TrEMBL record:
Domain Alpha glucuronidase N-terminal: 8-65
Residue ranges of domain Glycosyl hydrolase family 67 catalytic in the record: 69-388
A GO BP annotation: glucuronoxylan catabolic process
Protein name: Xylan alpha-1,2-glucuronidase
Entries under Gene3D superfamilies matching the protein: Alpha-glucuronidase, C-terminal domain (3.90.1330.10), Chitobiase/beta-hexosaminidase domain 2-like (3.30.379.10), Glycosidases (3.20.20.80)
Length: 635
């Protein structure tokens, strides 16, 4: 188009300063509201306009326009200013340097360290584009169980090549820092964060990293947890450790994401108390460029947990959320469960920190405590599988994570619908059927795995399938019996005043609601209380009957998902139809496995018969105890 015709163009994708004067004039007021990464979509005098202040805003705006076209929204109605509500929106890869992925179920790591930096695979670009299309702006590329080697020049060169590939898409690279790297790489006698030589080592190392990656985002650290070294080894606090690294990255504008997933080598009376007990006293003691990364719940990505009590409890220390997109505890690669449903439950939980309405999402977006730094991370579920995520529908979790990271208040039904429209079809029957499955799937899964607040009853180490019998071994809090404590009269973990009192870490409102076994919502009953098998619940059923009915409901739910899906034959391309259909067979089968194994195991203690309507297990308990006992899927 020549310049004279420029004004006649019907589609404008341009930074605000590059728009023709008349358009600038009419959009001035709206444009003032656009922030650095934000954009404006506007239909104005017959023209579609995408504008922003920055290149990255323009990219986000363009993807938003594409989304609207794909989902058939009316372009004539466009009028939307979007700014991300959270600053740091990251994927966390638990990828090892040997290309295995910890808790990854979609193949190997997409980072081909051997070929890097010489070969830049198209997949890196596709990855960056896909992430930019959902607003993700950072990626931590290495496992939190960190290998110090990634900090050596050889690997920094490779990481720099990835950073170069991601940069046009607004994605910064972060690395995991192994706390004792000064000892491992340079034979320092200590990694004590208060030792000047150690501090200098990290400063020098950081300066070196920035020579490779000038816009390096910073470090993600797992310390003093599950064998990872940390400040505890030197009698120092988590703040001492984090601040040392923060001082090293500060001159370059970097940040430190310090994980709250800290637990001792010695089992406390209740493991879920530890992060709060450890971090709460440190509130306000971290440098300004530290953000503490907290898992959604106080235990460890279980199918259902109450929100982590640190949210709302650290007004002087920015906290970020860590969600797990990979389904370690939720059926791994073959179960269809819409994680956005779980995340919404947590994001909308009220911490009551400043009275009603103090939701977790307001902690995260910084508005509740006026955090200067805000963030959210999702443990990636992608790998070398052709469809990226193993289960076709697990792409929806990656997508939903990006959407909620951009704006944690977003409506998850709309997120699901947009994803279906963009990924499968705009056909009403497909949309409604898939949406129905997705929006019900989370409750269904919780029912067939861990109903009524049960948790950590999965098989040992690989975490796939039921294992309520798991007991003994190195750590009590890595067993199932530690958490459910079933005996001949009752089941559940007493976390009220009469027990571990972990409940005390929550606001008074929650103490009242959750503290009373009579009124607590059933979904958290056994998380907070020990309950007699024959106790009558609000539903009119005894606890045992309620448990059995819940498992049965879960199985029926999985069967219902399968039937619903089968209705779509012919409306979806045959490849993906069959792929999902076969995974649903596995899901139904494994839902039955969970129900039968758990009811047989717990039934030994309750000694009560299965209530009417609950199917009898197909095998005896021994069968399940021995079933695939030696099989370790993945890593
Ligand atoms: C647990 C995983 C383990 C991770 C750990 C973590 O089983 O593989 O290393 O979380 O988050 O859920 O550090």
């Amino acid at each position: 188009m020549n310049l004279e015709n420029k004004a006649a163009a019907l589609l404008w994708i341009a930074k605000f300063e590059d728009l023709p004067d008349p358009i600038q004039l009419s959009l001035k007021e709206k444009a003032d509201l656009i922030e650095e990464e934000g954009y404006l979509l506007q239909f104005e005098k017959g023209k579609v306009i995408v504008t922003s202040k920055s290149d990255i805003g323009l990219l986000y705006g363009t993807f938003a326009l594409l989304r609207k076209i794909q989902t058939r929204e009316k372009l004539e109605e466009l009028s939307e200013i979007e700014n991300p509500k959270i600053q740091k929106r990251l994927l966390n890869h638990w990828d090892n340097l040997n290309r295995t992925v910890e808790r990854g179920y979609a193949g190997f790591s997409i980072w081909n360290w051997h070929r890097l930096p010489r070969h830049i695979d198209q997949q890196y670009i596709d990855y960056a584009r896909a992430n930019a299309s959902i607003g993700i702006n950072g990626t931590s590329i290495t496992n939190v169980n960190a290998n110090a080697l990634v900090l050596t020049p050889e690997y920094l060169e490779k990481a720099a090549a990835l950073a170069d590939a991601f940069r046009p898409y607004g994605i910064k690279v972060y690395l995991t820092a192994r706390f004792n790297a000064p000892m491992v790489l340079d034979n320092l006698p200590t990694a004590d964060p208060l030792d000047p030589e150690v501090q200098q080592w990290w400063k020098d190392k950081t300066r070196e990293i920035y020579t490779y990656i000038p816009d390096f985002g910073g470090f993600l650290v797992k310390a003093d947890s599950e064998g990872q070294p940390g400040p505890h080894n030197y009698g120092r606090t988590q703040a001492d450790g984090a601040n040392m690294l923060a001082d090293a990255v500060q001159p370059f504008g970097g940040i430190v994401m310090w994980r709250a997933f800290v637990y001792n080598e010695h089992t406390p009376t209740d493991r879920i108390r530890q992060a709060y007990d450890e971090f709460k006293p440190l509130d306000g003691k971290f440098r300004e460029n530290v953000i503490v990364q907290v898992k959604n719940g106080p235990l460890d990505f279980q199918p259902r947990e109450p929100f982590h009590p640190l949210f709302g409890a650290m007004p002087e220390t920015p906290l970020m959320m860590e969600f797990q997109i990979t389904k370690e505890y939720l059926g791994q690669d073959t179960h269809w469960v819409n994680l956005a449903s779980m995340w919404e439950e947590v994001l909308q939980s009220d911490t009551y920190a400043k009275g009603p309405g103090s939701t977790v999402s307001k902690v995260l977006d910084g508005s509740l405590h006026d955090y200067k730094l805000t963030g959210i991370a999702g443990v990636s579920n992608i790998g070398t599988d052709r469809n990226w995520t193993g289960h076709q529908t697990a792409q929806a979790d990656w997508y939903a994570f990006g959407q909620l990271a951009w704006n944690p208040e977003q409506n998850i039904e709309k997120i699901a619908e947009d994803w279906i429209r963009m990924t499968f079809s705009n056909d009403t029957e497909v949309i409604n059927t898939m949406k129905g499955i997705m929006l019900n799937s989370y409750e269904i899964l919780v029912n067939y795995m861990t109903p009524l607040g049960l948790h950590h009853i999965m098989a040992r180490s690989h975490h796939w399938g039921p294992g309520p019998w798991v007991t003994g071994g190195g750590r009590d809090d890595w067993t199932a019996t530690y958490y459910h404590k079933a005996n001949s009269d009752s089941i559940g973990f007493d976390r009220t005043e009469t027990g571990s009192n972990a409940l005390a870490q929550y606001a008074a409102e929650w103490k009242e609601i959750w503290g009373d076994a009579e009124t607590i919502p059933l979904e958290f009953l056994l998380w907070f209380h020990r309950v007699l098998w024959n106790k009558k619940l609000s539903t009119g059923n005894t606890l045992w009957d309620e448990l059995a009915i819940s498992y049965q409901k879960g199985v029926e739910g999985a069967r219902w998902m399968q039937q619903e899906w089968n209705k779509l034959e012919g409306l979806i391309d045959p490849d993906r139809f069959k792929h999902i259909a076969s995974f649903l067979k596995i899901q139904v089968n494994e839902a039955e496995w969970w129900r039968d194994a758990c009811l047989l195991y717990f039934g030994q203690y309750s000694k009560m018969p299965l209530p009417e309507g609950v199917e009898a297990p197909k095998h005896d308990l021994n069968y399940y105890l021995n079933f695939k006992r030696n099989f370790v899927p993945g890593i």
